[in-house]
TrEMBL record:
UniProt protein name: Cobalamin biosynthesis protein CobW
GO molecular function, one term: hydrolase activity
Family note: Belongs to the SIMIBI class G3E GTPase family. ZNG1 subfamily.
Role this protein plays: Zinc chaperone that directly transfers zinc cofactor to target proteins, thereby activating them. Zinc is transferred from the CXCC motif in the GTPase domain to the zinc binding site in target proteins in a process requiring GTP hydrolysis.
Record GO cellular component, one term: cytoplasm
The species this protein was found in: Thermocrinis ruber
Alphabetical UniProt keywords: Chaperone, Hydrolase, Nucleotide-binding
Length: 296
């Protein structure tokens, strides 16, 4: 299982700058691979990011969800086999929607940590009516109002209200149940694509906790809280735990043994999205949940 982030946003919103800053500030000692999907014959973003990340693969012009779907899945497999990354970042083109990428990543054994949508606050009025931009916002659970240094407070408030309204109206839903894919979102206001550590703080929580359970030492993040469960729970009890989480909990990861189910369940809750699609058939340790709290 590889944790993954999808970086989306309209043309010129600051996706590549965000990736550069994240590499410098949050992933300097991690094996992070990046897949870049660009439009045009010359891939500029990929060349820039190769100076910051250990492994960068550029996909040719075309949409990941259709014309180059096979190339995307091949790239993921190649990265896993040759590089064994600890984290995967996928930067979609400015004209793409993130949902098909989410499906492909999940089918290939990746856990979606978050879908981050960059919004250009200075130029949002120029593209806010574009369907692609609306679906990018509605398909994300981390909304980033970028370039806030270029607008006044009144404009920033207008953009924020508009983005929240679009998220509510274009919220991604399950086609069969009509239930929202994301229950909530986290909104950040920033410049130069800089995000706080809390956005990425839960990425390695499960791996670190497993090391701890195996007797190895590691440093604890002061924003983490660990809950141990002595007895197996049923799935409805898990949902009840999720529904009753305090508002400052933005991530929850762990391993649970369920009643009447032979395999331990990997639990991954990120910014309103619950993923329980992976199991650990041979896990013999304790059931536990790691809560990641906001630094705000």
């Amino acid at each position: 299982m590889i944790p993954a982030f999808i970086i989306t946003g309209y043309l010129g919103s600051g996706k590549t700058t965000l990736l550069l800053n994240a590499a410098r500030e949050h992933f300097s000692e991690k094996r992070v691979a990046v897949i870049v999907n660009e439009l045009g014959e010359v891939g500029v973003d990929g060349k820039i990011l190769k100076n910051a990340y250990s492994e960068v693969l550029e996909l040719p012009e075309g949409c990941i969800c259709c014309t180059i779907h096979a190339e995307f899945e091949k790239a993921i497999r190649e990265l896993r086999e040759k590089y064994e990354p600890e984290l995967l970042m996928v930067e979609t083109s400015g004209s793409a929607e993130p949902f098909p990428v989410m499906i492909s990543l999940q089918n290939l054994g990746c856990i979606i940590e978050g879908v981050i949508c960059l919004i250009d606050t200075k130029n949002f009025h120029l593209y806010s009516q574009e369907d692609t931009a609306k679906h990018q916002i509605g398909s994300s659970n981390v909304l980033v109002l970028n370039k806030t240094d270029l607008v006044d407070e009144s404009t920033l408030k207008q953009v924020e209200d508009s983005v929240v309204d679009i998220w509510n109206r274009y919220l991604l839903r399950n086609l069969f149940t009509n239930e929202p894919v994301f229950r909530s979102f986290k909104l950040y206001k920033t410049s130069f694509g800089k995000l706080p550590a809390e956005v990425f703080s839960g990425v390695f929580a499960l791996q670190e906790k497993l090391y701890h359970l195996n007797g190895e030492t590691h440093s604890h993040n002061h924003a983490q809280q660990v809950i141990y469960l002595d007895e197996p729970v049923d799935y409805n009890e898990l949902l009840d735990i999720i529904n009753k989480l305090p508002p400052d909990v933005i991530r929850l990861k762990g391993i649970l043994k369920l009643k009447d189910f032979p395999e331990a369940l990997v639990v991954n809750y990120s910014f309103g999205n619950l993923d329980t699609s992976y199991t650990l058939p041979h896990y013999e340790g304790k059931s536990f949940l790691v809560l990641i709290r906001s630094f705000n």
